Amino acid sequence: TIIGIDRLDYTKGLPERLRAFEALLEQFPQHRRHVRLVQVAPPTRETLPVYQDIRREVERMVGQINGRFGDLDWQPVTYLHRPFPQDVLARLCRESAVGLVTPLRDGMNLVAKEYIAAQRPEDPGVLVLSRFAGAAEQLREALLINPHDVNELARTLDR
């Protein structure tokens, strides 16, 4: 499982992330039915048109990917548009193989650090992190990517 946890915000790179996940399933069909993306995207600033637009775009893309690649027994993307308690988010991070943090621009980005902190030492997940996140300077063990390069991100997820 790949986990993404971000406010539903246009700076977080959610459409780029979904395009890359779709490219992963398209270019590397061996991952179909074996990998899924769980995207937790709590609402934020819902009265502003730009945030309404990003929500519509993300929900359209999730439907498109699930419709194209999913079947009765498997949906590639689980999209959760609501907040969760921190202990639930930590469990989701711990149980995932990959943490995907792809902001187009960001400050420190605590989600990246929270993903690392939630891991079990005997079986840690891998953090795939935008090089445009401030945390990229500190988290050198992460796989750093350009979130604008969908194919690079798909290839990184294939590793």
Give a quick summary of the entry.
The protein is α/β, with parallel strands linked by helices.
Principal-axes shape call: globular
What fold name goes in the CATH topology slot? Rossmann fold
Structural class: alpha/beta
Report the mean per-residue pLDDT as an integer: 93
CATH 4th-level superfamily:
Glycogen Phosphorylase B
Tally of DSSP helical segments:
5
What is the CATH-assigned architecture?
3-Layer(aba) Sandwich
Main sheet specs:
6 strands, parallel
Unreliable runs: none
Helix proportion range: 25-40%
Beta-strand percentage? Answer: 15-25%
Q: Got a strand count? A: 6
Oligomer: single chain
How much is the radius of gyration in Å? 15 Å
Distance between the termini: 14 Å
CATH class: Alpha Beta
State the domain count. 1
- Taken in chain order, the helices and strands follow as EHEHEHEHEEH
Strand order of the largest sheet: 3-2-1-4-5-6
InterPro entries: Glyco_trans_20 (IPR001830)
Protein name: Glyco_transf_20
GO molecular function: alpha,alpha-trehalose-phosphate synthase (UDP-forming) activity
Pfam families: Glyco_transf_20
